[in-house]
């Protein structure tokens, strides 16, 4: 293999400091030699750095000052290291660290630096294993089943990196030649000589004619290699089997797979019999199923006997993590129990899928920053693997790259494009229509209730039902960004003007006369009217609602004003008139562009590629414009309907730039959506572990605005896990009054208690926060302590996506997870993967959050005690959800450390404690006593 037959030296260094400039020195040199595709030698050399080894490095590597005191210095071993490496290709996992550090050390002692070719296995792994969530060496070895006995030992790390490199070479050799050609093309942007691997293997593969034959499951389209898709859902279901009615029948079904649970059995029977005897009016079934009751299988099993292509099971939950948990864990478990092959799809918007036409166009778009080249290479390989085109399969920490804004699917139908027959979104829609079990986000369901995906007379399960009201409100809370609206209109105007010649000659001889070139001139009048109306509307809103509400000293900053008394626009007839006129003008433009699409479809078989691109770009911008028109119309209706309760948030990037206005409104009334949901489904099961307050559903009913006539039953299943025996709540006795602390003092206090726990208790720990801002600040402080050397610290919004850090935590042995929002609920960790839960404060919602303030202001208008009917119940439910992370089965044990003494010092504390499982011990002692008791309790 030419260069690839040469020798490779796979190197790993352990150092006193990762920064050479901070007096970092090498304490261990590890090297694995590869000759002709085999690992031939492993070198391990400890080195006396002549400086103290920090404790955190000893904790990480196991090397202390005593371990290296009799070892040679770097000056003594450097000539041998140089000789070993000088004629070999240098490989490392993060090669820019190891090679740079080694060369600086060589220079420090007066030797020549290594001038060798270098390859990075991190970058190669990112490209060739595109769906892995982490590219740390330890994670890669776990994923690829490479034995890694001593992580952070240089010789062991070098050895497994060599094995990783050989697997990478094999993976590259298996890639189709067109894929390899693209990788070699974009590989010039890789680190150092990493692209050498692609180029060398490509040269050899191109000499072998047999290697150009594609496997049967792949095909080529314009240089891209794609995996063949099955457009039909494949299921194997035995419809002759009957639901297991008796205890014995259920035990037999679960035998060898799961333990029989009384609560789960009751839930199954309730759902099955309720679904068999449906009430056409009273469709809502409110069920509180305690943590560990097995509620997911509890509703999946009985409803699986009733679903068909029209009468589906739709599951609406809150987070992506929960949706994936249902599809990836619960559905396979259902199949194992029933010996069937049910298939479930997660229903999401087109925005989550790749548009192949747009990606193909973006491949040669060098206006994008060069760092996107690696991302392009990653996607090119991923396309040989994916059958869905779902971008979430890439498991990226974020999707902020400009490339994603280009290649996301806009939802338009593809006709006569290069990849119209390969369109992932078309494929996915077909899967939604054919699947009998659908999982989705609660807000997405609310926005798409009229979708045909959901079938007819289907069953709806609202999982984590305590969030349903909030999801409905967020679903009916659109935003109008005047800057973006202006951008959409301008783009349509520019596309029409810049392509006026193409459009003129394209339609001059068409007999339908749906569109002709004179239309271009007529459109200009509408564009001018829109500009004028938008300016007048912006100044009306600014003058009426902003100008007199911003103090002079605040006018240099970002402006945000909240109007929570739902009077926006109602005493402003001019605003109503301007809004109405703007909707009319925007609709005229959009409708006229639509006739152009009609004309295009009428003669699309004779249309040039150039015109197709024009139509495609117009379609994208017109779809955006249509969305804004719908939002404007919603706002107009909200203003018109005097009884509608809503609040408005007005933001401006700059007080002196009126065109940066952004209006967001929050709908409080959700009764219409509740009624529409009731009408759409045959039976609705609202299920959750924490729905009631002291065994009362009143808070849930008030929050969702349900009518008593819509409710069929309210059921509370008893706690069968003896959570009060298997868990405890601890409150340190010397906690300060957190409300008297400054932000900095609070962050320091939380950090101190976390460090105390992690230094003294060896149990997997999760820490729950009320805000991501607090989480981030505490994380920064933890990373300044020695804790980070003993524990892997995973932080939501910092160290990766929610799914990524959840998986890291689940496989970790010494991991601590800092989470907020979705980590309060629904996330399951098996057995001893979570034993200590630190709750940083009682989870009250911030009254300054726009959604919360609008809701609470409206409740005040109804003469309700906001704290009693909203703030306190929501905090109790959230705390109960957090407690539910610990004890999932009768054999689980876990403890909560609550860093908020208000539960003992405030009058409402008793209400909170009374709402927790009966008999749950609450221990209020000093930290030394608490740590001792936790150790005894858990061990």
TrEMBL record:
UniProt cross-references to Gene3D superfamilies, sorted A to Z: P-loop containing nucleotide triphosphate hydrolases, Ribonuclease H-like superfamily/Ribonuclease H
GO cellular-component term (any): cytosol
Keyword Protein biosynthesis belongs to the record: no
Keyword terms of this UniProt record: ATP-binding, DNA replication, DNA-directed DNA polymerase, Exonuclease, Helicase, Hydrolase, Nuclease, Nucleotide-binding, Nucleotidyltransferase, Transferase
GO terms, molecular function: 3'-5' exonuclease activity; ATP binding; DNA binding; DNA-directed DNA polymerase activity; helicase activity; hydrolase activity, acting on acid anhydrides, in phosphorus-containing anhydrides
Protein's GO biological process: DNA replication proofreading
Signal peptide span: none
CDD domains: DEDDh
Top-level EC class: hydrolase
Pfam families: DEAD, Helicase_C_2, RNase_T
EC code(s) of this entry: 3.1.-.-
Binding site for ATP: 289-296
Keyword ATP-binding belongs to the record: yes
UniProt domain Helicase ATP-binding: residue ranges: 250-562
Family from the record: Belongs to the helicase family. DinG subfamily. Type 2 sub-subfamily.
Function field: 3'-5' exonuclease.
Protein name: 3'-5' exonuclease DinG
Organism taxonomic ancestry: Bacteria, Bacillati, Bacillota, Bacilli, Lactobacillales
């Amino acid at each position: 293999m030419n260069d690839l037959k040469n020798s490779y030296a796979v190197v790993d260094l352990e150092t006193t400091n990762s920064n050479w400039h901070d007096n970092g020195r090498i304490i261990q040199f590890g090297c694995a030699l590869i000759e002709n595709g085999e690992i031939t030698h492993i070198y391990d050399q400890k080195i006396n750095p002549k400086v103290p080894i920090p404790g955190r490095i000893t904790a990480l590597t196991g090397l202390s000052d005593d371990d290296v005191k009799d070892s040679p210095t770097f000056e003594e071993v450097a000539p041998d290291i140089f000789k070993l490496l000088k004629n070999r290709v240098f490989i490392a996992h993060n090669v820019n660290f190891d090679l740079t550090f080694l060369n600086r050390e060589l220079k420090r002692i007066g030797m020549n630096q290594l001038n060798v070719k270098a390859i990075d296995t991190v970058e190669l792994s990112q490209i060739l294993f595109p769906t892995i969530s982490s590219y740390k060496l330890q994670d890669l070895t776990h994923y690829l089943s490479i034995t890694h006995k001593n992580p952070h030992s240089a010789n062991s790390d070098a050895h497994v990196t060599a094995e990783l490199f050989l697997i990478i070479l094999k993976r590259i050799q298996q890639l189709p030649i067109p894929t390899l050609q693209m990788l070699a093309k974009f590989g010039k942007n890789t680190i150092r000589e990493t692209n050498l691997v692609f180029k060398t293997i490509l040269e050899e593969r191109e000499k072998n004619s047999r290697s150009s034959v594609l496997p049967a499951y792949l095909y080529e389209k314009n240089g891209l290699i794609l995996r063949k898709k099955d457009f039909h859902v494949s299921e194997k279901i035995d419809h002759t089997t009957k639901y297991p009615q008796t205890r014995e029948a259920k035990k037999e079904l679960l035998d060898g797979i799961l333990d029989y649970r009384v609560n789960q059995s009751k839930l199954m029977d309730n759902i099955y019999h309720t679904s068999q005897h449906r009430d056409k009016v009273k469709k809502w079934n409110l069920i509180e199923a305690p943590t560990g009751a097995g509620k997911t299988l509890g509703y999946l099993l009985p409803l699986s006997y009733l679903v068909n292509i029209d009468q589906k099971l739709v599951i609406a939950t809150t987070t992506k993590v929960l949706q994936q948990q249902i599809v990836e864990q619960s559905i396979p478990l259902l199949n194992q129990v029933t010996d069937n092959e049910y298939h479930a799809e997660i229903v999401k918007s087109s925005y989550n899928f790749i548009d192949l036409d747009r990606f193909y166009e973006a491949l040669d778009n060098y206006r994008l920053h060069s760092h996107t080249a690696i991302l392009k290479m990653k996607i090119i390989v991923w396309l040989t693997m994916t059958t869905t085109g779902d971008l979430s399969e890439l498991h990226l920490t974020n999707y902020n790259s400009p490339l994603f804004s280009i290649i996301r699917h806009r939802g338009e139908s593809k006709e006569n494009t290069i990849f119209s027959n390969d369109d992932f979104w078309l494929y996915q829609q077909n899967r939604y229509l054919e699947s009998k079990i659908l999982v989705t986000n609660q807000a997405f369901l609310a926005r798409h209730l009229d979708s045909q995906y959901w079938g007819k007379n289907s069953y709806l399960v609202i999982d984590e039902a305590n969030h349903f009201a909030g999801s409905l409100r967020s679903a009916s809370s659109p935003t109008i960004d005047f800057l973006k609206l202006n951008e959409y209109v301008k783009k349509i105007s520019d596309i029409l003007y810049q392509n006026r010649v193409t459009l003129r000659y394209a339609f001059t001889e068409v007999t339908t006369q749906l569109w002709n070139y004179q239309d271009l001139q007529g459109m200009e009048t509408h564009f001018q009217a829109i500009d004028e109306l938008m300016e007048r509307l912006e100044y009306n809103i600014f003058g009426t609602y902003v100008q007199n509400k911003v103090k002079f000293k605040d006018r240099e900053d970002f402006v945000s004003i909240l109007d929570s008394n739902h009077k926006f626009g109602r005493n402003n007839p001019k605003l109503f008139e301007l809004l109405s006129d703007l909707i009319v003008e925007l609709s005229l433009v959009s409708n006229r562009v639509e006739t152009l699409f009609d004309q295009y479809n009428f003669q699309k078989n004779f249309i040039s590629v150039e015109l197709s691109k024009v139509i495609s770009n117009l379609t994208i911008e017109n779809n955006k414009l249509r969305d804004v028109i719908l939002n404007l119309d919603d706002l107009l209706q909200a203003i018109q309907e005097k009884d509608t309760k809503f609040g408005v948030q007005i933001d401006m990037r700059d007080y002196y730039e009126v065109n940066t206005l952004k209006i967001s409104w929050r709908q409080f009334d959700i009764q219409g959506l509740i009624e529409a949901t009731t009408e759409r489904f045959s039976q609705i099961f609202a299920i959750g572990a924490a729905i009631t307050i002291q065994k009362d559903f009143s808070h849930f009913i008030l929050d969702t605005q349900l009518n008593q006539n819509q409710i069929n039953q309210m059921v509370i299943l008893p706690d069968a896990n003896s959570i009060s025996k298997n868990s405890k709540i601890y409150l340190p006795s010397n906690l300060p009054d957190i409300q008297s602390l400054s932000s900095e003092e609070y962050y320091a206090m939380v950090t101190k208690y976390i460090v105390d726990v992690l230094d003294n208790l060896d149990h997997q720990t999760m820490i729950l926060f009320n805000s991501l801002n607090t989480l981030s600040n505490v994380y920064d402080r933890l990373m300044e302590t020695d804790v980070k050397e003993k524990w892997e610290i995973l932080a939501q919004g910092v160290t990766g996506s929610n799914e990524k850090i959840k998986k890291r935590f689940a496989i970790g042995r010494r991991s601590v997870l800092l989470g907020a929002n979705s980590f309060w609920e629904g996330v399951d960790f098996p057995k001893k993967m979570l034993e200590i839960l630190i709750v940083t404060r009682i989870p009250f919602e911030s009254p300054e959050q726009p959604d919360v303030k609008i809701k609470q202001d409206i409740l005040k208008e109804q003469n309700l005690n906001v704290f009693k009917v909203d703030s306190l119940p929501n905090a109790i439910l959230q705390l109960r959800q957090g407690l539910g992370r610990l004890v999932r089965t009768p054999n689980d044990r876990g403890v909560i450390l609550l860093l908020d003494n208000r539960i003992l010092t405030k009058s409402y504390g008793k209400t909170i404690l009374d709402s927790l499982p009966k008999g749950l011990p609450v221990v209020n002692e000093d930290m030394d006593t608490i740590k001792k008791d936790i150790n005894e309790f858990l061990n």
